[in-house]
Every structure is written in C-alpha cells, then in structure tokens.
Amino acid sequence: MIRSFATAAVTASLLAAPAFAQSTSKSGAPMAEPQIAQPAQPMAPAAPRFSWTGGYVGGQLGFGQTSVTGDSNRLGGTAGVFAGYRMDMGQAVLGVEGVVTPVLPGSSDLPGGDSIRGTASLLLSAGMPFGPDQRTLAYVNAGPTIMRTGGSGVSSETSTGATLGVGVDYMLNDNTMLRTGLSHTQVKSVGAANARVRTTSANVGVGFKF
C-alpha cells in the first residue's frame, strides 16, 4: 500500500509541473514587445561646391612703398586693373592673370630726369580653396613684369623684372569677388640712370567672375 501511495504521489507531481510552469509564465512580468526599427531619416543634401573655373576682371587700390637706387624711399597709393582665367582642379586652383598698374606708390620721378609710367605683369597662380562651400581662395602668384619709363622729349623705354605676390579672394556670390593681397616687384636697369626699382604694396579690390 505504501508503494501504491508513493507511485500516486510521483504521478501527481509530474502532472502538476507543467501546470505550475504555465501558471508561473502567465503570472510573471509581461514580456517586452518586440522593437520595430524606425526607417532612417533622409539626410539633407549637401550645399553645392563652388567652382572657381572661369574668367574674371576687376580693379584694385592699395598703399605701399617704392625704393629707387640712390634715392629715398617713397610712400603712397597705388591703383591698377586685373584680368585672368582660372581652372578649378578640386584640391587646387591654377590660373593666369594680367595686372596693369599705371600708378605706383610715391613719386614717379627717377634720377636722370626720367619718370615711371607704370608696370604690366603676367602672373601664374596656384591656390587652395577652403570654407564650407569653397568660396574662399588663398593663392600665390609670380611672373615677369615690364616697367615703362620716359622723360621730357625722350621716347618711352621698358625694363624687365619680376613680381611675387600672395592673396585671398572671396566670392560674395557666383559673380562678385572681393580681393586682398600683398605684392612685391623688382626691376633692374630702369631709365637713363639704370636704377633698380622695388615696389611693395598691400591691395584690396573688387572683381567680376563670368
């Protein structure tokens, strides 16, 4: 009889186990709902990158110093015009520019009675664009310069030298350009006295890109 009672107890416990597990599952903490992945929000399109490729023209004013061999340094204003063309290569911008400067800093008189009548330069430039949409361009330029001189009753003469400069151009919009820069020009054997002339100036200008 004892054996029958033990067998009945074991059987009852085995039958009660699934029911106990089920009741525990039902009475326990609610199961977390599955998370549904939200679709990624589309990113705003990036602003179009500005291209420096194209031609441009403009004018500039400045202030600087002219040094002449055998004479004192001269300070004064300068004025000129420029025109050029650039190619935007992505990480670099290459270009060529012509600059005509009829007014140099200080007096234009030279020893021997001649006077400076202006310069003309042909400059090659290389620069790097930067900024949020690449509208700012820092560059260096260099190239040959011709200085024209003349005197009373004397035909004009030309002397050859070189110009080196640095600058920063900024596009206000797709067509209007602001400019600031420094330039240094040196020309030897100028005028009847074969003087050496050096000019250094800081310039600001406005240009139009097309």
UniProtKB/TrEMBL annotation:
Region (Disordered): 26-45
N-terminal signal peptide: 1-21
Residue spans of biased composition, Low complexity class: 29-45
Residues annotated as domain Outer membrane protein beta-barrel: 44-210
Source organism superkingdom: Bacteria
Pfam assignment, any one: OMP_b-brl
Keywords for the protein's UniProt record, in alphabetical order: Signal
InterPro entries according to UniProt: Beta-barrel_OMP, OMP/PagP_B-barrel
Name of the protein described by the UniProt record: Outer membrane beta-barrel protein
